[in-house]
């Protein structure tokens, strides 16, 4: 028995006191309307409607049950309205997975502007410090490095490619000297993000595109770019960091880029927007995806442009 439909039939009978009118209202036959009422009464083991050849009337139990049915059906209608609105009008809580280092340095302006445009959405942001299963953890959308998440049927859209650069504090370079070629790094204190793809081998491409491979034993390895930046600012050594993490430091002169004629080719990072590939994507998810793609397009230069080199 379809209990919700049986309840709708019963309410229509109670309102019209007519099987024929109730059936017409719901687009079903008289026989089906009668069958739904009989099934409902059998399910409840009580008579809801007194019937004779001339009229219908609700029993005492029918009066009580009709009030409860109205409450249930009204609540279901309200829930359905909210759900339908949620597919067209962004609202509710959006669960975002975000790479910790980038988020702490650059994500707040995006979130601020999104909430200004979509005030009915609430954001729940989880900063990722380790790999997660995107779908299993119940995230709606992510702004992450691809290696930070896994999950089947994910849609991935590239937002920003960030190049790694070698930087150090002026105080460190004043004491240790400025390297002029990649091989010089072997005589410096080297700081790096926890090795993943290069295992200590770093590839530097010269202006003539020739590549030079240097094996470096890092004095400090850390899995967070912001902590590595702090180590570089403290004069602990030369660090390889995503360019967007140190733009303010480069502009302010608290860090200096070294080996500016060379490009590190085996440590590029690509920031990616991910969300589950579902048939029905909620309005809140769709709005955030579209907004983020446009925001990164508009702000790409600000997020990746560094000042003129200050040292070689």
Any overview of this molecule?
It is built from 9 helices and 17 strands. It is of the alpha/beta class and 312 residues long. It folds into 3 domains: 3-86, Arc Repressor Mutant, subunit A (Orthogonal Bundle), CATH 1.10.10; 92-160 and 270-304, 3-Layer(aba) Sandwich (D-Maltodextrin-Binding Protein, domain 2), CATH 3.40.190; 164-267, 3-Layer(aba) Sandwich (D-Maltodextrin-Binding Protein, domain 2). Strand 1 and strand 2 form a beta hairpin. Helix 1 crosses helix 2 (19-26) and helix 2 crosses helix 3 (30-44). The longest helix is centred in the N-terminal third of the chain and has 27 residues, at 60-86. The model is unreliable at 306-312 (pLDDT under 50).
Describe how the helices and strands are arranged.
Blueprint: H1 3-16, H2 19-26, H3 30-44, E1 49-51, E2 56-58, H4 60-86, E3 92-99, H5 100-117, E4 121-128, E5 132-133, E6 141-144, E7 149-150, E8 154-162, E9 164-168, H6 170-176, E10 190-193, E11 201-205, E12 211-215, E13 220-222, H7 225-233, E14 238-242, H8 247-252, E15 256-258, E16 263-264, E17 269-276, H9 283-304
Parallel strand pairs: 3-4, 3-6, 5-7, 10-13, 10-14
Antiparallel strand pairs: 1-2, 6-17, 8-17, 9-14, 9-15, 11-12, 11-16
Helix pairs in contact: 1-2, 1-3, 1-4, 2-3
